[in-house]
Design brief:
By secondary structure, the chain is an alpha/beta fold. It contains 5 helices and 5 strands; from the N terminus they run E-E-E-H-E-H-E-H-H-H. The longest helix has 20 residues, at 113-132.
Length: 133
């Protein structure tokens, strides 16, 4: 399960059982993520949490990194049995916008920030899975 964490929305993606294909799952407000995870984890097994970590072009932490660090800390405390991996999320939102733009979706759907966050989470998870093997 991967997260594209933002202070307004968290894009969530999951993989198939063979960990080949990442798929968009949902977009959740940060205030509702813990309730969402509690419900989801009762129904589904998650092997690893992959959290997109925001960095600047020069490799230093971005402004949003402190929020992600807090989220990761609580994730580890709440679910200590599930490992948490950080993944560089530089350019994922831009790549997501490009992918959505060329997908043939209607303009209103392309501009939906929930969709962008979900696609960014998919990119984070897909990249993690490809680099894992």
């Amino acid at each position: 399960m991967a997260f594209d964490y933002g202070t307004k929305r968290i894009g969530i993606a999951v993989s198939d059982n063979l960990q080949i294909i990442a798929t968009a799952l949902d977009t959740v407000h940060p205030n509702h993520i813990w309730e969402f995870l509690a419900t989801y984890l009762v129904q589904e097994e998650v092997e690893t949490f992959v959290v997109g970590y925001p960095k600047q072009l020069d490799g230093t932490d971005s402004v949003n990194a402190q929020h992600v660090t807090g989220f990761v800390r609580k994730l580890k405390k709440t679910y200590p049995h599930i490992p948490v991996e950080l993944a560089d999320e530089r350019f994922t939102s831009k790549i997501a916008l490009q992918a959505i733009g060329s997908s043939g979706m209607k303009k209103t759907k392309r501009q939906d920030k929930n969709v962008v966050d979900q696609v960014a989470a998919v990119l984070i998870l897909q990249s993690y899975m490809e680099n894992k093997f």
